[in-house]
Specification:
By secondary structure, the chain is α+β, with helices and mostly antiparallel strands. The chain has one domain. The protein is 32% helix and 18% strand. Strand 2 and strand 3 form a beta hairpin. Helix 3 packs parallel to helix 5 and helix 4 runs antiparallel to helix 5. The protein is globular.
Length: 233
Amino acid sequence: MNRSRVLILFLLLSEASLTSHASGAPSAEDHLIRVPKNNQMDDAYDRLWREKLFVTPGNISRFVALPGNVGTETVASVYRAPDKNGSLAGGYWLTVTQSSEALWNYFARPTPKGLGDPRSVKVVRIDAPLSQATALLIQRSWRIMLTQAKAERKVQGIPMDNSKELFSAEFGDGLTSVGTLPTVPKTLPRDTRTLLDIANYLVAYPDATIAGRATLNQKINIAAAALIKRRSR
């Protein structure tokens, strides 16, 4: 995967990545927005990015970054594949997929000239094994934030762009819950921002060096453990 593209996404989505993980009760506005099951996006654009980027399960956790004015569609999926060559104990894997160009451009109005068939857009994929401890911390942090997600309400403010970040995980009943970041304000509350930080660490993880993976793994574990502790009170 092109490291410069991943780095650009990483920086764009994590404006406050130097998050403090200190203890303290979350604010009332610190939550994901629940995506109703009857509104989980099923137009031509949504079908296309799912078809191209959902190349593995994402039942442990999944993060989807849909671009606004800058970037390309990117997905980070955590799942179990114990028979996959190179698996660690527990058989957990992380797969990051990224389109080579923004699929959204093919659905913009007016459509830019010179674009061909969106199905011809290439997708870059890179896999990395995850430790069981890290995978389960990610799963718990996703589940707790999705369980505590709230319905969207009207708020004052104007979105900075039309980007969307989606978080999903499968629960024990086999059903998948989906939540998204609030449209406004631009500055996210602590726990929601921490969840986004973890997602960005996941996006960067597979393409990192061995030392880089170790650093990101530590950041994921610290951030997820702190998030779970705060939200479990």
